[in-house]
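Key idea: predict the complex, not the pieces.
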Amino acid sequence: MSITVPQEELVKPTAHRVILPFYIYSALSFLIATSLLFFSSESVTQHFFNPKLLAITHTIALGWGTMMILGASHLLVPVLIQGKLYSTALAYTSFVFAASGIPILAYHFYYFDFGWMTQLGALLINAAVMVYVINLAMSMIKSKKENVHAAFIFTAALWLLITTMLGLLLVCNFVDPLLPQNSTYYLSLHANIGVVGWFLLLIIGVGSRLIPMFLVSKYSNASLLWVIYALINFSLLLFFFLFLYWPFSTWYFIPVAAIFVAIFLFMFYCYQCFKSRIRKKIDEQLKSSLLSVLLMGISILVLITLIAGYTLSHATNTVFALLYGFVVFFGWLTVLIFGMTFKTLPFIIWDKVYQVQSGKGTTPNPKSLFSSRIFTMMVLVYLSGFLMFAIGIFFASNTLLKIASFFLLVSALLYNWNVFKTILHKKIKP
Amino acid sequence: MNETTNDPIRCDRALNALEEIIDPEIGLNIVDLGLIYELDFDDANSILKVVMTLTTPHCPMGESITGSVKTVLKNHFPEMEIFLELTFFPPWNLEKISDEGREFINQ
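Result:
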């Protein structure tokens, strides 16, 4: 017996014109964020709640990380849920809302203005996330096929919505007190839900599907992934509860331990994929993605130190708070995006340029659409900058922070150069 | 050879032609990747039926790969009408990669 699929029903991948704006926006945001960091590196030695850092953090978390993930997820959702994306119009709408909301928010944060324009920026970002959640939910309802990866991606989107809604509430609370405490009190709740609920959950959900695919590995373990899923969500719910009803409690170690175990299990999953891979040679992009898994572990170790200090002294240690934010956004997320950009973008462009030509002669390998030499240079410059910056935070050295941020800026320039080289690729005639 | 056919000689010709088509992500041709299940030559009706699969039901490169299969086969068998049947039963898995394919991936 064979179950056949008529050719006409072959699900078309999400069109490149839906995905590319997210990639371009994200690349430019990375350049802007590293430029801001370079010109205001001294702000890192101040308290973590200062206008410049607030602007940089939101540019990197929303403009760079979230926009890239939203773009990639519009491409990968059909693969993950085994059905097509419900609406490209909703994907565009989500882009337009986010693309206009992020700069408004970041600009006004930079000037420490929490007026109606900042609230409008936050509102637009919420609208973008809401539209994304609707698109995702409708795609999943239509697909009717459930799997662990889809559960990760949808739950992550819900946590993102909670994060941005809380963000909007905090912005409004600065002007008109709506919450029992001032907005800075809720920052760690806002940040941790965003980092763990959105980024960690989504990255594990998508990574657990892509890593074996890119390694050509036969390892799969849905039960293990469900355990990781349960641990992360349990941790988030418990953290939420403790934060609201039992602050400064030593019980905080339970959600942190749950996250630690979840990350450890994900590392084990990646290791099993790596061990049973058919492709023995690992390319630079995948090495970069695997390095980000390690940085994920390092960020949780910094978080443990931060929480230990918080429960013992009832105050947040500025150095460890900055280090945590830096390792998460500029370490784990950035290194992951480096790898994943050049694992997905060349295929999107290759498909756009050469699809009509396929089968009619030789076409270039998608990997040749970007410069692997520039990629390697970018990673090396970046890692040097990353290490120097982390040391600079620790020793509050303005000189080291300035030099390191210059390295990060150069890596952003190299990244953009390679992204635009790929996007602007012209067809090579056979 | 894992593919089934009613005409081994022309099947070899067709498979050689299909080896031109590379799965861009894995970097391996679709024959060694094990995507081709069946090739049937129906001379009475001038139809060449190819039964094939994809590595995943919603492979982003699916349209490109199936389009290439039709183009390549039409170029090599212009007298036949190409009928492509996509199936996911049995689903593709890594065991379907040929030994030559495994060697090639690691070159």
